[in-house]
Specification:
The structure holds two protein chains of two kinds. Chain A is of the alpha+beta class. Chain A is 30% helix and 17% strand. In chain A, strand 2 and strand 3 form a beta hairpin. Chain B has eleven helices and eight strands. In chain B, strand 5, helix 8 and strand 6 form a beta-alpha-beta unit. Classes of the chains: A alpha+beta, B alpha/beta.
């Protein structure tokens, strides 16, 4: 006859089990929060240079001037290809290109005075508002990337090598009395970029090539 | 017909055929097959390409791009394309799984929105809203994208580059004419008393280029018939923002318009979203002209 042994088996601790379930829940919630936060921040992860801003800083009126300047780039490129020179403001106005053709622009964008400054391989179109207002001044800078000399800041390696023409829009916070010259960042001008700018998508996602060029 | 007259007629006909096919004869042997996801792109490519392209819509003309479910034959059609024009910023998300399905046989993508400035999606909270994908609902947006499209076609078909450039110039001039006419009329009208509301944010591009501020966007979700609660919410927004002119969509059901009219007393006009109807080269111009006319007439009625 074998001796009888007694083993005590304690019941499951409801307290401990509840604790583990709570810990597990907290871990899941924390993981979800981290994932959600990373998704929230992804679209805004763009690396801007100190003198660059996204176009979301512009008001509705200013954004329209910005939009129309960029929309005119392919036409200016076309005119230059036909004429052999960067087109002057008068020609842009005659061709009905916004924002130079003021009858196609609503107020107050229709009161900007435009002038061009031909740098040979690049050109600046300067738009100035009435003196004494607190409106922005604008520069549309177009650079022939196949030309010998590029103005500062140099377009650099960020551009698609197949691109012929680089377009930059710069703004200054008030009316300017004179043309600021080549070095815009040093003169306090800000370069405005849109979130769809191929420059930004190349910088943030090198795998996606720009598919359009002039 | 005398033998001499017959020969002359035949020679004339031959010369005419040569003239009509000149872009093809000097360039690609076959016209490019360009797929498009939206009605606007159909009109644009048709106007740019003319004889050098065959434009192939990837969805049926009466389907809603927001709700579209691709069919197997739609996916098979992608394999026959040389290139595909996509919105790429949220208006044709149905195309992503289709492209994945065809894998390596996917056509070259053309994204005319590359570099096109976007407007935030919701006027109520612009800082938090996502960008809006309806860049084609404005003349300025169209001009920018047509320039991009022409450049992309030049790269695909360099032999016909001059043809695409010329076509783009002519087409853009017509579109600018539409805007110039509207701006001339608008500048003669008083607009300071207007409080504009729209049923969705896509029309913000059009109102921005006309210099008209959108005070409220009242439809919670675009493309879906509003529930009773959503309609009540829209009415509340119209009243809170003191909207006195509301622009709804042409596709918006009349019974919803009637409710808004009855409850708020605001003036209502309809705009086209340019997402339905037969695929035609003239479709975009006609719809934009109609949109501009609707806006101008509504404002004139409030003078």
């Amino acid at each position: 006859m074998t001796p009888t042994t007694t083993r005590l088996v304690p019941p499951y601790s409801a307290r401990r089990e509840t604790l583990w379930v709570l810990v597990l829940l907290l871990v899941i919630i924390a993981a979800m929060a981290v994932r959600f936060a990373s998704l929230e921040t992804q679209p805004t992860e763009v690396s801007l240079k100190p003198y660059q801003d996204l176009d979301s800083v512009l008001s509705t009126d200013q954004h329209l001037v910005y939009r129309t300047m960029l929309a005119s780039v392919s036409d200016i490129h076309d005119l230059r290809a036909r004429e052999g020179l960067w087109p002057e403001v008068l020609l842009l106005e005659e061709e009905g290109l916004q924002p130079f053709a003021r009858d196609l622009m609503p107020a107050p964008a229709d009161r900007l005075q435009w002038a061009s400054y031909d740098g040979g391989t690049w050109v600046d179109y300067l738009g100035t508002p009435d003196a004494g207002t607190n409106r922005l001044s604008y520069i549309l800078r177009l650079i022939d990337l196949h030309g010998g000399y590029h103005p500062h800041p140099h377009p650099g390696v960020d551009y698609d090598p197949e691109l012929r023409l680089a377009a930059q829009v710069w703004v200054f916070e008030r009316p300017v009395r004179s043309y600021p010259g080549e070095r815009l960042p040093e003169a306090g001008w800000r370069w405005i970029l849109s979130s769809t700018d191929p420059l930004l998508s190349r910088r943030t996602n090198p795998g996606r090539a720009a598919r359009v060029s002039w | 017909m005398s033998p001499r007259a017959s020969i002359t007629t035949r020679l004339s006909l031959f010369a005419l055929c040569l003239a009509l096919t000149a872009p093809l004869a000097s360039g690609a042997e076959q016209p490019l097959r360009i797929g498009v996801t939206l009605h606007a792109y159909y009109s644009w490519v048709q106007n740019l390409g003319s004889a050098t392209t065959i434009v192939v819509p990837v969805r049926s003309s009466d389907s809603d791009p927001h709700l579209y479910q691709p069919l197997p034959e739609d996916i098979a059609r992608l394999k026959t394309l040389d290139a595909l024009v996509i919105n790429g910023i949220g208006h044709d998300e149905f195309i992503r799984p289709m492209l994945q399905a065809v894998g390596d046989e996917a056509p070259t993508l053309i994204e005319p929105n590359a570099g096109v400035p976007l407007i935030q999606g919701g006027a109520m909270e612009p800082a938090k809203a996502a960008t809006d994908s309806h860049t084609f609902l404005s003349i300025t947006g169209a001009l920018h994208q047509i320039g991009n499209l022409a450049a992309a076609l030049e790269r695909l078909d360099p032999d016909n580059a001059a043809h695409y450039r010329n076509q783009a110039r002519v087409y853009k001039r017509r579109l600018r004419g539409l805007l110039a006419g509207a701006m001339k009329e608008l500048k003669a009208l008083r607009t300071t008393h207007l409080r504009v509301g729209t049923v969705h944010s896509g029309y913000s591009y059009l109102f921005q280029e006309l210099g008209l501020r959108v005070h409220a966007i009242v439809q919670p979700r675009h493309g879906i018939a509003p529930s009773a609660r959503q309609l009540a919410d829209s009415i509340q927004r119209i009243e809170q923002a003191e909207i006195n002119i509301l622009f709804t969509e042409a596709d918006y059901e009349q019974r919803f318009v009637d409710v808004l009219l009855e409850e708020t007393g605001t003036r209502v006009a309809r705009l086209s979203h340019i997402s339905r109807g037969p695929y035609r080269a003239e479709h975009y111009e006609e719809q934009m002209a109609a949109n501009l006319r609707q806006i101008l007439d509504a404002i004139k009625a409030m003078q």
